[in-house]
Amino acid sequence: MKFDLELAKKGHPVQTRDGRAIRIICYDRYDNRYPIIALIKNDNDENIETYTLYGGHCIDDLESCYDLEMVPIEKEYFVNVYQTFSGIIFAGNIFTSEYLAKESLRNNCEKFIRTISFKI
């Protein structure tokens, strides 16, 4: 997920392009090129790195494994699986909670099989 300065300032997790954890120390260093200072988590310590306001590690717009990106946040959804009277299996509506999915079972005349969850 592309680096978003405003989301990062609000506390959304940030990582390097290759998936290493980042702690941003400041966004307003007195430097026109690299105003962001961050710590990159390694095995036993952290390295100090500087970044552009767009999360770039290199000023020349070259991609780097050190570039910043937002950590994708998965959301979990739920769906009820049914079998119709003719034997066709299908999934119903998508719900944001298991409770809501199971509440919707009350008004369904198809044969309920089970509620499943998936993440996106």
Tell the overall outline.
rod-shaped
Number of domains: 2
User: In order across it, which strands form the biggest sheet?
Assistant: 2-3-4
Number of helices: 2
Low-confidence stretches: none
Largest sheet: 3 strands, antiparallel
Mean residue pLDDT? 88
Report how far the terminal alpha carbons are from each other: 13 Å
Oligomer status:
single chain
Residue fraction in strands:
35-45%
Radius of gyration: 23 Å
Q: Could you state the order of secondary-structure elements as H and E?
A: HEEEEEEEHE
Describe the model.
With 120 residues, the protein is mainly beta. The protein contains two helices and eight strands, in the order H-E-E-E-E-E-E-E-H-E. It folds into two domains: 66 residues, no CATH class; 44 residues, no CATH class. The strands form three sheets. It has a three-stranded antiparallel β-sheet with strand order 2-3-4, with no helix packed on it. Strand 6 and strand 7 form a beta hairpin. The chain is rod-shaped, with a radius of gyration of 23 Å.
